[in-house]
Amino acid sequence: MLGVHGVSVVLGDTPALAGVDLEVGTGETVAVLGPSGCGKTTLLRVVAGLQRPDRGAVELAGRDLTDVPPHRRGIGLMFQDDALFPHRDVGGNVAFGPRIARAPRAAVERRVAELLELVGLPGFARRSVATLSGGERQRVALARALAPGPQVLLLDEPFSSLDAQLRGRLLADLRALFAGLGLTVVYVTHDVAEAFTLGHRVAVMRAGRVVQAATPDELWSRPADDWVARFLGLANVLREGAAARVVRPEAVRVRLDPAGEAEVTAAERRGPAVRLRVRLPGGEELEAASTDVHHARPGDRVDVWIDPAGVVEVPLWDGR
Amino acid sequence: MDGRRPALSGRAARAAVVGLPAAFVALFFVYPLGSIVERGLTQGGGLDWPGDVLADPSTLHVVWFTFWQATASTALTLAAGLPLAWVVGRFSFRGRSLLRAIVVVPFVLPTVVVAMAFLALLPERLDRSVWAILLAHVFFNVAVVVRIVGGYWAGLSHELWDAAATLGASPARRFREVTLPLLAPALRSAAALVFLFCFTSFGVIVILGGPRYSTLETEIYNQAARAFDLRAAAALSLLQLGFVAAILAVSAALGRRLEGARPLVAERDVLRRPRGRERAAAAGIVAGTLLLLGLPLAVLVERSLATPAGLGLGFYRALGAETPALLVPPWHAAVNSLLFAALSTVLALAVGGAVAIAVARRRAAWLDGLAMLPLGASAVMLGFGFVIAFDAPPLDLRSWPWLVPVVQSLVAAPFVVRIAAPALRAIDPRLREAAAVLGASPARSWREIDLPLALRAFGVAAGFAFAVSLGEFGATVFVARSDRPTLPVAIFRFLGRPGAENVGQAMALSVVLMVLAAAAALLGERLAARRGAL
User: Is the CB of A86 less than 8 angstroms away from the CB of B260?
Assistant: First the structure.
């Protein structure tokens, strides 16, 4: 559906994108995940047509978009800080796209009502955008981006300014909505949990390149290199010569045993699991996620066993 | 008592900050204005409505022309300034801040200089026509549009524009549906300021309009200084005051309607380098505007050098000699101007600075309005008010030479308030609270926090006040003594006499005045920038 082929962009003197390739299938949600400054936002701007690539091409349904200006692409974009028009009310913001497309007035009004219903804000049309809360603003921004019926919807860290609870609720709503509408979506975020929640596939970006694009399960079990493993939150990356051994935390089995050879150095409850740091007799530390250890404290002695199914060898990132 | 000088108590300091400027404004502004009201509305102790003056056909004609030329000038200025506002508000490029500084130069130039420049530039057929007036007003006020609209534009988030694009709006549609509505508040305040300046414009009209074109402002001068009909001058002053108040009220009402939440982002996020066709367009606009602004000044310099004996400094050399046009050699005017402007700057900084402090701390909103009044009440009215208020006991100050800096400071003070108050208001109150928690008294925290942070604004304000005082003409022409002319007054006297020699000397004096005013304004900005960097 959407294809990004070898796109490079230089902003000022710094390369923001260095040959990005990405394919997004019809009805698929791809989460683009990476640290700040890796070029995620620039990639979205290239796809939307707001930034011209220095090299490479963007293709939509077999059509080359490189010379198509943003207003003729049929690609929707939801901005990081909502970018609602302050001089229009909620309805006026949502109606903007259909109005530009010369939809008849009655159809525009129907569309606005339908979308506000969809994002959970029925009856908000005449409200001023200045009176909305952060979460409501993002819902309006989503309704506005969807209103013209884009072929592809791009979202640029839309919930980064919201608190965690609200973000969780909106993410669940989004996932249901994307599935219901069969939308093709590219969702940019720096948050691993967000990417894993929404993305059918996750494309990990580093320094202007996509280093790995895979399903969340694949990513978690076979990260492309030690950097990706660490970025995903896998702490047990042990260097061994020219490669690294990644031990997933849930594969580190821990049992409280006063005669155990290892020692707990930190313990922290995270939902159903307890995160433990344990020091092995050799002095190296491992992180474990355990659902059957309770009331562990630093200093407790434990037995440690590693499930070989949770261990993977990965190459070392060469720093480029 | 421990022998230390007791610190000024908070209440006394506050009283001084509010009271002294209030007293100054009351004596030198409210009292003269009251004298005008008295002269205009009473005769022989009884009330006397000056209906004959107000209903006179010539008055109606003057009112019509005043509104007409102000409206036309404002429309032309907006049209001329918007393209450059776009360039300055949208793009970053080398020399952007220099360009912003250059654009302001015409605005700080004395009206007399601007008028002289257009007199020099335009062919005989045009140089006393309404076109000369309109062009000079555009030249003068382009800076207002570029700075206000361009600055506001630079603060608008580019994302709204991008959002409209992804929703299918073409560039033209985006301009109409997003940019223009968002710019409305800036366009409104720029238009209101330009309209007000043109409505009360004096030097430009009295020199370029000749006897044929008269506005309320020049008519007040004509009645007071040429026809000696003080009652008519006072009546016209009141009429003008009424119109100015109405204009301000309309503008404020419009402002309230347009004011909305505007999305602000830091400038560097918005500004980008121009690309492709934008480059050519921006370069063309910059070149065109610089030509529009530079040409009159270049021609002025050229004419001041064009002596009957060829290019030379003849007119400048003549400034040292006695002339029938003035009671003193012309170079005295330059000395007088510098001295008066320096004193006026000190006064304006004291009064305007105190008002700015009071306004910024929201102690006295009414003071803000009071300090702004001279701007609206117009310089000619102020000068006229001085003449009738201080010409008889108990306050006979006619021969007091320091009346000139006083009246100039009243004209300059509103600018000081306008520049300093926002800078003071922008200081995070938590900084003062932090200083207080660390043990600083209010006076100390003012000295340690507010003053250093607002120093740049005060520097700019000082340069501006000096430039405004140097070029002040409408009020000074009433108050200056014949043996103590300022530069603008001397230029005007030269122009009132026939002969190429007099015009040439007027041109030479104008160049001197132009250089001094531009240097003062730029120096203020430059000094402030250096001190602020510490």
Answer: yes
State the DSSP code for B91: B
Its pTM surpasses 0.90: no
ipTM above 0.85, yes or no: no
Structure-block tokens of residue B271: 């500004």
Cβ contacts of residue B375 below 8 Å, gap of 6+? B196, B411, B414, B415
Domain final residue pick, A195, A221, A247: A221
Say if B262 is an interface residue toward chain A (CB within 8 Å).
yes
| Nearest-by-Cβ selection for B166 from A75, A86, A101 | A75
Mean pLDDT by 10 residues, chain B (534 residues): 47 73 84 85 77 85 95 96 90 82 81 86 75 92 88 82 91 90 87 90 87 89 86 88 85 70 52 81 91 89 85 83 81 91 93 82 61 70 87 73 89 85 80 80 80 83 89 89 89 84 87 87 70 42
Say if residues B99 and B132 touch (Cβ distance below 8 Å). Answer: no
Cβ A76–B167 below 8 Å, yes or no? yes
CATH value at residue A81: 3.40.50.300
Question: Are A63 and A207 found together in one domain?
Answer: yes
Two tokens, residue A121: 């804000």
CA distance A196 to chain B (A): 27
Cα separation of A74 and A97, whole Å?
10
Residue A206: both structure tokens together: 């580093």
**Quick check: B259 contacting A, CB < 8 Å?**
no
DSSP class of B428: -
Q: What is the pLDDT of residue B73?
A: 96
Structural domains in chain B, sorted by start? 50-303 (1.10.3720.10), 314-534 (1.10.3720.10)
Which chain B residue has its CA at the smallest distance from A131's CA? Answer: B261
B257: closest CA of chain A, how far (Å):
11
